[in-house]
Amino acid sequence: MEEPSAEEATSNSKTPQSSVISTYRAKIGGLSRNVTVAWGKSQTSHTLCVTVDKPNNVCTVACKVDLKPWPFWGKLKGSKSVDVDSRRVDIFWNLRAAKFSESAEPSEGYFIAVVADAEVVLLVGDLTKKAYRKTKSRRAAEHAALVIKKETVLGKKCFNARTKFDEKEKEEHDIVVVHSISGQKDPEMWISIDGTVSIHVANLKWKFRGNGTVWVEKVPVQVLWDVHDWLFKGHGVGQATFIFKPGVPPPPPPAADAAAEEDEAISTQCVDDDDGDSGGNSLRSSCGGDGFHEFCFFLYAWKTE
Predict the structure, then answer these.
(1) How large a percentage of the chain has pLDDT more than 90?
(2) How far is 17 from 10, CA to CA, in rounded Å?
């Protein structure tokens, strides 16, 4: 029987909750494997789940930690060993000093380390020295690469997230999406990166799907959005999807019907599945066949009222 995925392990229902799910490509036993670190936060729980994929796409849940307050603090520091194709993989974590803000993912004071063959193949968090001391393992020759990050945030008018657009960057960028749907004027939307408005969409009812390219510290970033449910779903609630994809967009097709092809591409890349699958078909469409040729950041913004 297949183990649950990281997304399933951080949520027990279809009720939207804050989450940050990062998928890394790491070398384990000479093979590239997906290692997913998922943080989930609701009104009653706060969890961490780490999974390691096997070649047959079966997820092995390496560890799941409930970040509730005392008396459950004993789980905030520990380790667990799992078998991945007859190879031992150790997961170490220390979350005792982790600091959280609005995001489900801590901002500092923690580490998560994945060890195979006495090498740290993945290290997440800022307590790197503590991690190497605890694991007693050497740094892997090939660093794990972050290939997909998906963040779900809840809000009314303003939605905040953080991500990097380049592995060489030391600090994450602040992304803020603000809308004026509930106002008396025609709805508008602003997408800001590091305090600067990068995209302003007027007449949002007519431009609820679209894309554009912005430059962030000399890095081109494609931005795609679909806010259909914000505007047209009943009761004023719904999920909007934003995709941030570093890199230069492909050249436009030379055919006369380029506009039609562009509209079709935007629809394919931005529209989420109706069944609430965050990142299924849209993920594959936007990031390429297996999703690991280039980095994509998905922001799912749930408008709560």
Answers:
(1) 55
(2) 9
- In DSSP terms, which residues pair with 81 in a beta bridge? 90
SS3 for 62-88 is EEEEECCCCCCHHHHEEEEEEECCCCE
- CATH no., domain 153-303: 2.40.128.180
pLDDT at 57: 64
What is the pLDDT confidence band of residue 303, given thresholds at 50, 70 and 90?
very high
Average pLDDT over residues 223-245: 91
Taking the C-alpha atoms of residue 214 and residue 297, their distance in angstroms, rounded to an integer, is: 14
φ, ψ (nearest 5 deg) of residue 230: -60, -35
Mean pLDDT of the chain: 82
> In 3D, which of 299, 301, 304, 276 has the Cα closest to residue 182?
304
Domain boundaries, the chain: 6-143, 153-303
CA neighbours within 13 Å on the CB side: how many for 36? 28
Q: ∠ at Cα 119 (115, 121), nearest 5°?
A: 60
Beta partners for residue 101, in sequence order: none
Give the chain's largest Cα–Cα span: 66
| Range list of β-strands (E), the chain | 18-28, 31-41, 46-53, 59-66, 77-83, 88-94, 111-116, 119-125, 138-139, 145-155, 158-163, 173-179, 189-193, 196-201, 209-216, 219-226, 238-246, 296-303
Residue 166: pLDDT band with limits 50, 70, 90: confident
The Cα 259–Cα 269 span in angstroms is 15
Assign 301 to helix, strand or coil.
Answer: strand
Statement: residue 234 has pLDDT above 90: no
Token pair, residue 259, equals 């506009």
- Look at residue 112 in the predicted model and tell me its pLDDT: 97
Q: Radius of gyration (Cα) for the chain, nearest Å?
A: 20
DSSP code of residue 99: B
145-167 burial by CB neighbour count: b if 16+ within 10 A, else e?
ebbbbbbbbbbeeebbbbbbbee
